[in-house]
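Dear support,

We are seeing what looks like truncated structure output for some complexes. This example has two components. We would appreciate it if you could run it in full and send us the complete C-alpha cell output so we can diff it against ours.
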Amino acid sequence: MSESSRGSDLTRRRMLQGAAVALTAAAGTALIGLTGPTDRPAAAAGLAGSDEFDEVYQGRRIQGRPVTDGAAAGHHHGGGYAVLIDGRPLHMMRNSDGTWISVVNHYQTFTTPRGLARAAVNELQGATLV
Amino acid sequence: MAVRKNQATLTAKEKRDFVNAVLELKRAGGYDDFVSTHDSFIKSDSDDGPRTAHHAPSFLPWHRRFLLQFEQALQGVNPDVTLPYWDWTADRTPTASLWGSDFLGGDGRRSDGQVTTGAFAFSGGKWPLKVSPDNRTFLRRAMGRGVAELPTRAEVNSVLALPDYDAAPWNGSSEGFRNNLEGWRGVNLHNRVHVWVGGLMLTGMSPNDPVFWLHHCFVDKLWAEWQSRHPGQGYLPADSTDNVVALGDAMKPWNDTTPADMLDHTGHYTYDTGF
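Here is the complete output from our reference environment:
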C-alpha cells in the first residue's frame, strides 16, 4: 500500500503563488494562513513531492501544508509548514539539514512532514493534542 | 560539598529520600514549572533562529544551570539530597535497578505505555501530568522500542576524544563535542537516550519523567570529563555570535548566568568518580 492510498482527500491543488487562504480546523481551534510553496528555495526543494497531504492514518486525519511564516498559528517558525492532527496543530520545526522534529518526537528526526505526522499519531495512541 | 553519585550505588535511604523530595516538589507545585520551562525552550530553540537550550553551544551550560536549580529545589525539601546520575553505558536494560519499584518504576505496559510500578505510577495518585503534549495524564515509557540500544562506553569515549567544543554554524549540523554529545550528529548520545526511554522522554515535556534529571546529570558529568581530558580547550563561541549564547552572554530565562559562570561545576558539587 502506498503512502497516499489511504488518504481521504488526495487533492493536491496548487495554491496560486502569493494567494492566501484560511484553513479552518475541524473544531475551529486553528487558523493557519496558507500559500503556495514557500518562497525559500531550500525549503521548497526539500518538500518536493510531499508538500501537501491530507489523509487518514490509523483512524486519525492528518494534514500538512506549507504556511507563511508568522501565520496565525504563531509558533510554526523555521519550517514554513504546518501539520494538523484531527484539526489540532502539531508543534513542529525544521532542522538545518532539512529534517523535521515535533514536540511529540523531539529527539529523533524525520525526513518528511508526513512521516513526522504519522509518528505523532503512533505516539498519541488515540490521545488528543493539547 | 555535595557529591553527585551513580544511581546504581545509592542506598535504599538515598533512593527513598530522592523519590520523596521529587514527590514533595510535585505536590507543592514547583515541579511542573521545570517541565514548562524546558518545553518553552524546546519550542523556541531552532537551527536557524535564536537558540539557547538545544541545538546550540549553550546546551551544556543551560542544562547545568537548569539541573542546579532543580537540585536546589529538592534540597529545599531535604538538604541531604543530590542529583544521582544514570550511566546508561553500564545500566542498559529495563531490568536495571534504576527502574525498580523502589526508585523510578519500570517500563510502560504494552497496551498504552503507562508506567504501573513505583512512586510515579499514575495509580499512586502522586504523579499526574500537568504539562503534556496531549490529554493523557499518566507517565508513559516504551523502553528500547524507538531505538534498540543505548550508547556504549566506546561510543562515549569516541565523543569525549573530540578536541573542539563546538563549531560554526553552532547548531544541530555542527561538528564538535557539544553536537556529538547532544546527538544531532555522529553516534548520537543524548538524543538517543531520550528515544530509548520513550513515552514522555520523547517529547518537549521530557522532565515529566524523573529519569530526565538522572540522564542529564550524566550528560553534565560527561561535559566535566571532556573538560578534564582537554584542558586547553574551552567553551565556544568565545565572541558575540548571532542567535547563540557566547561565552560571556547571559542565558535565558535566568539572565544572570553566563556559560563562563558554568564552566567549573566544582563550586557547586562534585562527581563521585570519573567516567
